Amino acid sequence: MEIIAIDNAQISIMRELLFFTLIFSFIHTGCYAKLERGGLEDIICSKAIYLKTSSDLDDLIGVCSRSKLVLLGESTHGTSEYYYWRAEISKRLIAEEGFNFIVVEGDWASIYRLNLYVKGVSDEYKTARDVMKTFNRWPEWMWANTEVEKLVEWLKIFNSKLPLEKKVGFYGMDVYGQWEAMEEVLRVAEAKFPESLSEILERYGCYTAFGFDEWQYALSVQRGHPPCTDNLQWVVDVIREHLESSTDPNDIKALSHAKQSAKVVLNSEDYYRLAVRSNVSSWNSRVMHMHETVTRLLAAHGEDSKGIVWAHNTHIGDARATSMLKEGMVNIGQLSRELHTDDEVTLIGFSTYRGRVNAGSRWGENMLRMRIPAAPQGSAEEILKRCGRDVFYTIFDDDLRSNSELLKPIGHRAIGVVYNPSGDHLYNYVPTILPIRYDAIIFIKITSPLDTF
Fold this sequence. Notes:
Elements lengths: L7 H16 L1 H4 L11 H6 L3 E2 L7 H7 L4 E4 L7 H18 L3 E7 H12 L8 H5 L13 H14 L9 E6 L3 H15 L4 H12 L5 H9 L6 H17 L3 H27 L3 H22 L6 E4 L2 H4 L7 H4 L4 H8 L5 E15 L8 E5 L7 H6 L5 E5 L2 H4 L8 E4 L10 H4 L1 E4 L1 H4 L2 E8 L6
Helix pairs in contact: 5-8, 6-8, 9-10, 9-13, 10-12, 11-13, 12-13, 13-14
């Protein structure tokens, strides 16, 4: 077995930036319009709804109330206001419209501990913060922060009045965190079907043999080492067989959790194996895992269930209205619209003109509070700033979607967990047709970083 020495930090940066590298090049080729004063601003500002308190969300909640899925975006992973307003929208959808779960762009295994906490089915942790302190995969600040903490504590109180089968769930949908997911599979296997444990360990050994280093594994497969796909699929199939034959509600819950954990392990292998040779294929692999997780959660919560998705704008805004379309890249927003009817899906983007944000200068390095510079002239953010309101939202109704000025692509800000403010105007704007990418957009002129533990 040949183990190839590589710089994991460099490859991890590729993982974070694979999307940005592909589509931001369009900015330099002039493939989006810069609409000047008197164009887009007059159109959008005429429909702007001032946002100061949760009661100002009434019109937006009215749009969301018809939906089976509401997808709430963010243009950074480290902005306090995005998390605050997503929480306010989520609380109203849960309390007033009967939404059944929130699923976030986080790891299944770690976020599942928050799910157990909000449902009150585990007394292992006394507070939400106790759970969040166990999160150990970078960037921890995405889910270990005070805005999520307040929402989780609210959910626990809300759930305390409900029977177990009606309690609102809180889940992660990402393909990362596969080693912790693997531990969950082994834990459930030992408890529920110990006769298969040794073979599961052996089959997982194919993936873990490279020192639990997914990148070394992927590069070795590229060099000719046999892939572990069949072994990892075997584990999923074994759990599925036990799940299909089980009638005990407690066993069903445990096995369903194990099955999803096994799916994370399986699909992570696909993602990393593809990532070392194809950015587009690996992006789509990750997207399909997240979309399928959301779909499974809808099915698990019943025929009339409704879910809320928290993810970056690049995941929730319809990819077909961006330069992703030309690259053959999809996202959850697009796939959700294709799976459900228009009325069953609401896509809400978030953005800012300037502020500060939590991010890292490189993958895995210490979190910094960075300055977000003022958006460049002609970008969506600069035009939205001209409305003269600090915080507002615009719903893209039929009137706006029929306006030819709005159907021109313009640069729309997108910041990842790795960020270089000095290159913001060059690399952090996605060519976007706003009223097609989203059903509504929430604009916050000046934003602040998340408070972390």
